[in-house]
Amino acid sequence: MYAVRDVVEMKKPHACGANAWLILRVGADIKLKCEGCGHMVMLSRHDFDKRLKRVLRQAETD
């Protein structure tokens, strides 16, 4: 599925034109950071699941 530090693609691009988002926090809400401009947003898990297209890059595990 998805976890903290994964990079995901959403169905619609951000206003800056980038479509890659870094997951910063996972819980009841998901905190995302745009890879293009650095803008941060919080989405409910329900909204995030609806808008998620695919996981671009899995987080590296130590």
Which of globular, elongated, flat, extended, rod-shaped describes the shape? globular
- Strand residue content: over 45%
Major β-sheet strand ordering: 4-3-2-1-5
Q: How helix-rich are the residues, as a percent range?
A: 10-25%
Distance between the ends: 18 Å
The biggest sheet, with number of strands, parallel, antiparallel or mixed sense and barrel status, is: 5 strands, antiparallel
Mean pLDDT: 95
Task: Please tally the β strands and state the result.
Answer: 5
Number of helices: 1
Radius of gyration: 11 Å
- SSE series: EEEEHE
Uncertain residue segments: none
Question: What's the number of domains?
Answer: 1
Q: Which structural class matches the secondary elements?
A: mainly beta
Organism: Periweissella cryptocerci
Pfam families: DUF951 (PF06107)
Protein name: DUF951 domain-containing protein
Secondary-structure blueprint of this entry?
Layout: E1 7-10, E2 20-26, E3 29-34, E4 40-44, H1 45-51, E5 52-57
Antiparallel strand pairs: 1-2, 1-5, 2-3, 3-4
Supply the key terms.
DUF951 domain-containing protein; 5 strands; DUF951; 62 residues; mainly beta; 45% strand; single chain
Can you walk me through this structure?
The chain is mostly beta strands and 62 residues long. The chain has one domain (7-57). The chain is built from one helix and five strands; from the N terminus they run E-E-E-E-H-E. Strands 4-3-2-1-5 form a five-stranded antiparallel sheet. The longest helix is centred in the last third of the chain and has 7 residues, at 45-51. It starts with 6 loop residues before the first strand and ends in a 5-residue tail after the last strand. The model has no long low-confidence stretch (mean pLDDT 95). It holds the Pfam family DUF951. This is DUF951 domain-containing protein.
